[in-house]
Structures are given as structure tokens and as C-alpha cells.
Amino acid sequence: MKFFVALLGVLAMAISADAGASMHNPFFCYATDTVRSMTNMGSVITSYEAIRRFNFTTVNPYMSTCTPSRFWYLGRYGSRLPHAPTLQSMIDFAESSIQDDIVRNYEAGRTTLCRQDFEMIRDFTLESDFGGIFRIENAGLLTESGIFALQNISRRYQEVFPEIFPQTYERSRFHFRHTGTPRTNVSIQAFATGLFGEVGAEGIVHEPIPEQDWFLRPFDFCPDFWEETADWDRQTRAFETGPEMLELIEQVNRKLGFNSQNELNFTQILTMWNWCRFKIAATFEASNSETGAHCPWCAPFSVAHHLLLEYYEDLSFFYASGYGVRNQRMLENLSCGLIQDLLNQMQSDNDGDTLARIFVSYSEEIQGMLVALGAFRDLWPIHQHNFAQQSGRHWLTSLISPFSANLAAVRYDCEDGDVDLRFFLNERPILVPGCDQQTGACKLSTIVDRFQRFISADCSTFFCSTN
After folding, report:
1. Residue numbers of the chain with a pLDDT score lower than 70
2. Superfamily for 4-462?
3. Prediction pTM value
4. How far apart are CA 50 and CA 53, in angstroms?
5. Which residues pair with 406 in a beta bridge?
């Protein structure tokens, strides 16, 4: 069995044999690229289907001879439009003189843009680009592609686990909960629609959302935790002003024909990248294309640039909600409610209990759960100075927490009375320390022993402690 944890490094190295900025090709033509490997390099702003394009799979129903009996799911919302501050900066950029400046630079022979890329930039308008949905009033809203992705995910799980997912909704058999934001509400409805159809999904009952949702939004309600993430800003700022990123800034300016008197700064270049990755992720599933919709603002970047910017984002999450958090115990405890719920679900032998518990939250919650499980931990931590050495890293947020990312656990009842658990990330089995490293199967007793401290804890207070 090929496991997802091993595939991460293989994919990353296949995409880039040497991730150094020196691999930059100044004559790379985005418009004629038939592979578009940058579509799966947007960090958490990456389409789920773009990842499946490189990692096409679904859960193997024959991976165990035991019977699946319980399902637990923590998902991220589907692809969305940028939040208001980011979207406004993108709109301001698009309405600035930069587009006209690039046209003049090209006509003066100062750029290395191919003709096709130049024409895409020249013809770009806010209204013509994907029907003009990138408007401030739509900030943060889920897109059609995001809905498609979630419906397809739930359908695939239903096909693999028909014993758990009948096509008719029963309140006593399914538990649904999301946060208070519209994007998680629409996402969980899309997931339910994939299972029960539009009419059936309208009848599902959601668990009420508390005012202080420490269960699905623990990061927001633990002020002590943010004192442990000081390295987040230090690492990302240091990388932003480091030699690799300075070289990227110089190369992008040179490609677009700007010189030292009028060069674009890092913020402007990052805004172009945001246009690129948000446009692709927001439209991928609905584009009917294996490489996604065109985005003119992908043209300034080579594949090497995407790898650098992806690493910049990976650093941010690694030190904010990953293995770079100084107090790992507190980070694990933030998942107290989720872990306790998971254990209660998997230990239940009551035939009348819920078959599936479905939660929709955010990328930080999924990353925090992966840390608690000990998955995707690299031998050496990523930091501001080892970009070139980390091309095959496991902590690759584009692959572990894209839009619609999902962490699922399935209980398998075996004929000998044993109970196995298997964990899946984005529909692929993952290896969890302490479990069978060949089959990926975890003994329920092993997981219970490992997380014993959560079983009887009062998670409403324990989640923000170092106990």
C-alpha cells in the first residue's frame, strides 16, 4: 500500500528536483504550459481537485477485511473568494497603473513575457475575469467550485462506506456541526447534499453553535496560546527579507520590465500571486479543465517562484498551528474537544449511536489535529534558512490542508473481536506513530491509551492549558 505521507515527498521532489530560486526560467510561458504544476502550490489557497489531479485516489474499500462501523470527519470549508482586506488589495492592484506600465514595458522590449502572457495581462479587466465575481460584496463567500468539491467528497465516502452512509438521512444516525461563518454553513450543506440529495439535505439538523465555540474554533478563544507563536512572525519576516525572496523580487521585476526606479515591492508581488492562486482555486472544479482557468497574474511567476511563495506560507502555518509552535502540549490540548469526541465515537458499542459525526471548520484545526496525531512531522523542522533542503518536506500545506481538506477516522470491527482505526487525510490513508507502519491500522486501545488525558477532561477549560 502506498501511503499519503510518503507520496508528499515524492510529489514535491518530482515537481522540483532543486527548489532553489536559481532554477528560475525568465522565459517561462504560463499560457502555453500544459502541466500547470503551480495549480497545486497555493498553500491553503489550493483547489482540492487540483491536488487530486496529482494524487488521484479515493479510499480503497478493500484495504481491510474487517467491517467499517463508525465514521468521524473533520473538514475544512470549500474554495472561497478572498476575505475583504485581501480582496480589496487585489482590486486596488488591478485598478492601479501597473497593468498599463507592463504594457508599455512590453512594447518597449523591456520584458521577457511571451506574447500569449502579455496579451492576457493586457486584456485583463475586473469585470471580464470570471464574470466579475471578485467584488468586495462577495468577499469570503464560497464558490461554485467549492460546493462541487464537497459534494463529490461526500459521494465518494458514501460509495466506499455504504454501511455507514445510507442515502436517506436519519437524525439519530448522523451528527452535523459547523462554525458560525457562512462558508462553513454552506460547506456542510454541500457535504450533506452529496449524501442525501438537495431535498434530503434540507432536513438535516445541525448542532447549535455556542457563542464561545472552543470546540471548533479553539484558536480564537485561547489568548495564552498566541504567546507561544512568536516565532511565526519572526520566521516569515526573515524569509521575506532573505536572499531567496529578494532574488524572486528582482526576477519578477525584470520579467515585467521594471527597473530600480519603479520596481514592484514584495507586497505588490504577493498581491499578484494572490490573484493567481485565488482565481485558480475559486474556479478549478467548475472550469472543466485539468489545469484550471487561466489567470493573467500567474504569468509573472516561474515554477521556482511558486515554490518559494508556497514555502513562505508553509512557514507561517508551521509556526502558528504546526510543529513550530513552541509549546506543543498546549497546541495538542487545543484539540481536546475534537479528540474527546473522536474517542467517544470510536469506543461506542451501542448500535443506536450515531454512525457518522461530521464537523466543518478551518485549516488550523485540521493542522492541529495532525500535530496531535504526530502525522507529517519532518526529521528537521523547516525554518528561514533551509528552503533548499526542504523540497521533499512532509509539512506541505498545499497537500495537507487545501480548500475542502478533510481528516477522517473509520472504525473497523474485526471477527476476532478486535477493533481497528484508520485515519485518512484527503481520502488517503496516513501513518500515525504507534500504529502499524505497514498497513496503517491503529488498534483502538493504542489510540485510547495515547489520548487518555482527554477522555474525562473538561475540555471547556482543559483546551487552553498545558496540563
Report:
1. 1-22, 56-58, 130-131
2. Phosphoglycerate mutase-like (3.40.50.1240)
3. 0.93
4. 5
5. 75
